[in-house]
Amino acid sequence: MPVFNQSRSRVIQILFGVVFIIIAAQLVNLQVFSKKYKLQAENNAIYRKVIYPDRGIIFDRKKRSLLENSIMFDLVVTPSEARGIDTLALCNLLEIDTAEYKKRMRDIIFKNTSVRPSVFEPLLSQELYARLSENIYKFPGFELSERSVRSYPLHIGANFLGYTAEVNPAFLAKHKDEGYEMGDYTGMTGLERTYEKVLMGQRGIKRYIKDNRSRIQGSYENGLFDTAAIAGKNLYLSLDAQLQALGEKLMTNKVGSIVAIDPKTGGILCMVSAPSYDPNYLTGSERSKHFNKLYKDPRLPLLNRAIYTTYSPGSTFKTVVGIIGLSEGVINERFSVVCNGAFWGCGNGRPKCLDKGTFNLTTAIAHSDNTYFATVYKRILDQPRYGGADSALKVFNTYAYTFGLGHKLGIDLPGEQPGNLPVSSYYRKIFGKNWNSCNVISNAIGQGEVSTTVLQLANVMATIANKGWYYTPHMVDSIEGNEFDDLLVRFKEKHFTDREIPDSVYDAVQNGMQGVMEYGTGAAAQVPGIVVCGKTGTVQNYYHGVAQKDHAFFGAFAPRNNPKIAIAVLCENAGFGAQSAAPIASLMIEQYLKDSIPEPDRKQKVEEIAKLNLIPARMRAEMNRLDSIKMKKEEEEQNRQNIQEQILDSTSAETTMVTQPIVEPTQKPQSPQELPDNHPKSWMANLITTEHKKKKITDINA
């Protein structure tokens, strides 16, 4: 054979060899390495059903369940198996249009492929479930899948319990290594979010054999590869459900918060954020609609005001100023100040004071004298030994920080805010490097740049009750089993204020706080038979630069000699703390310590406060505006429907007259409905009716 032909033959052999290798490699890739076709093949033969576990239950301190699990159903679809179905019939059952159907299918395929089951319609109502269960056999590729969802038998605690929702692509991307899949539900807020790993449990999987028509034939390999769902662990809270229910009742038609703490453990006894909502509102098929309504409410009911919103603490902060003043030695218990109506130590007569007279520490706390605490604060910052206000303010903040102010306490809830203790660098920017105590004197009475959460104020009360120490406030007291005990270790650590502060300092402040309740600003809120130490607060505030009605604050603990409850109450724009916040705290203390409110007059007080509407004026105005818009839209929609129905009725009557057939005198007249389908007059009647209706409806819509 010529050399030239041998060369051509070799080239052809090489080409065939390369092609063979490529084909063989692709076959190996498709059969061994490629997951795409393997997944499709498996899904053609095996149906993988997810078994969702029951989430853990949450109990209060007396083992009463705050939430439970109930069964609802999702409509689940595998898009690759749902081809050729009667789409219009399914849309009619679901009360959606075909455009929405196509959009959902596109989204499902994009997020979860066409061969894996995905939720098409979540949390079906009982009516919709009944309709679908009767007709589901008509829609291959669709099935009804059980899901355990939350229910709330006591209807309380929405803001700290939180809610669950289906994971979305953004969540999956953020938590890609945590085992979530499309269709899973996760805790979004509150305890549901913080203790998600404890509550979620572990999903189970059941595999079934399918035939070539996607009909289930039985268990795959007799269930050898199935996994059982494992329920989540239960949580046991320090919370008292009865106290929580009372707090939510008392805060009806008010904006604010209540936090109560067990001083001996740091356990939260109640946490009320007002306005709140029934937690059942965010479960079931109407969840999205209800969430949208809550989101648009100008009172912001989704906000947990106990930990997320910060306020100037007002006169409740005077207790801390008094303790620091005594500890620094700038005053003693006998030190007294004369108030003639205002503080003149800075030459401008500010701040003002309501009661004139001579006050020592005890009476100054009892009557909330501004002049006394402005004097103490000024003395602290003006101490020569610190060489200036910069260093003196740092010392003051160091004390305050140990009371849990100016930083997050670390409660087991998401969204906690740190509050604020202003620092010298901030004041240097405003007043220059030579700023002095008179520039910031409003801090002395809890105004100015000092801010706290209601939780922090309750913790200050617990710290004073304990005479210098506290545990980190927390909701969860224990977790079922011992697998997650490490999550609670940090709540067992005791935090101390300056250990050099003697008990006598706390005794002096407690004397003043007891005086508040016996003869001072909180005397009207005494609790029968219980020695309470309290402090009222009235806080000036502004909204977009416009002065608003004062906030009402009150902090307390009881009983004095063996404190079992420390509490803080805030009512936004409700005026004096003694008039609104203090009576609420008084009833809460009585309920917890006596386990009831036995006296008829006190029960009557509960009802009176519950009916009292203290919603801020600006919020009421916005609520009225939104209600007016809603009513106008509903009225316009109703009028449009009425006119459309009238025109359709008149059109029907006109069409009947136009299409009446001409008959012989001896012939019985036929209505359009009685004419045969192939009758020319029947065809003409239908045409006229359809076109006439279309024209009328178009005119109305225009």
From TrEMBL:
Coiled coil: 619-653
Ranges where the Penicillin-binding protein transpeptidase domain occurs: 256-586
Region (Disordered): 662-681
Subcellular location per the Swiss-Prot or TrEMBL entry: Cell membrane; Membrane
Transmembrane segments: 12-33
Any one GO molecular function term: peptidoglycan L,D-transpeptidase activity
GO cellular component terms attached to this protein's record: plasma membrane
Domain Penicillin-binding protein dimerisation: 51-217
Alphabetic keyword roster: Carboxypeptidase, Cell inner membrane, Cell membrane, Cell shape, Cell wall biogenesis/degradation, Coiled coil, Hydrolase, Membrane, Peptidoglycan synthesis, Protease, Transmembrane, Transmembrane helix
Pfam families, A to Z: PBP_dimer, Transpeptidase
GO biological process per UniProt: cell wall organization; peptidoglycan biosynthetic process; proteolysis; regulation of cell shape
Membrane topology listed for this record: Single-pass membrane protein
Protein name: Penicillin-binding protein 2
Organism of provenance: Hydrotalea sandarakina
